[in-house]
Amino acid sequence: MLLKLENPRLFADIVSIISELVTEVKIKVTKEGMSLTAVDPANVAMVHFKMPSDLFSEYNLDKDEVLGVNLENLKAVLRRCKPGSSLTIEKHENNLKLGINDRIKRDFSLALLDIDVEEKEMPQWEFNSIVKINSDALVEVVEDCAIVSDACTFIAEPSKFIVEAYGLNSARAEFSSDEAEIHSANSIARFSLEYMNKFIKGAKVSSRAHLSFSNNHPMRLDFPTGNIMLSFVLAPRIEQDD
Question: What are the chain's domains?
């Protein structure tokens, strides 16, 4: 296996974002491309990433590979990539070989891990509400909500989308159909801001965010970047009656 990225910055950013949620993952490498799907330790959230093979300048693969990787270690190496660097990724026995090429050639070796976790697939659900907005706007409203609460509520109607949070204090933002692309029936669901604050880091790699949710149902948040997809799933926050 030999893969090469001429501009690894986007890949480095995505690895950094995913590492906020999970540490040890299985990265699949097939003829279609590189992908991973992982569930956080609390079994509340899922992340999915896919990069097609044609985005690599070299993609030599004799057989499908599954790479058990510590993302903190991988992130530390990828941080060494500078503008203009290229990155090579090779598997050699039980090690992942990473080569950074710029003014000089630097080589790193990371031990591959035997990760015993159940294989997961990204669930395919139908949603009552799909909202497509500027990712920077989503960052703003999530950060607003985090000032006053530890959870936020998404409310979607055919012509508007509302994000609000409340406790002793409250915050609220409303988007009309002029400010967001809204495909919706009436939906309402509440989600943890601890996780949302991790997810919105995806704004670093995509200018658009696609939110899909239904009444008290898991939410899906996609950050599309060309042919690359970074997606998150989050279980709803169900309030308990006293």
Answer: 2-111 (3.70.10.10), 129-234 (3.10.150.10)
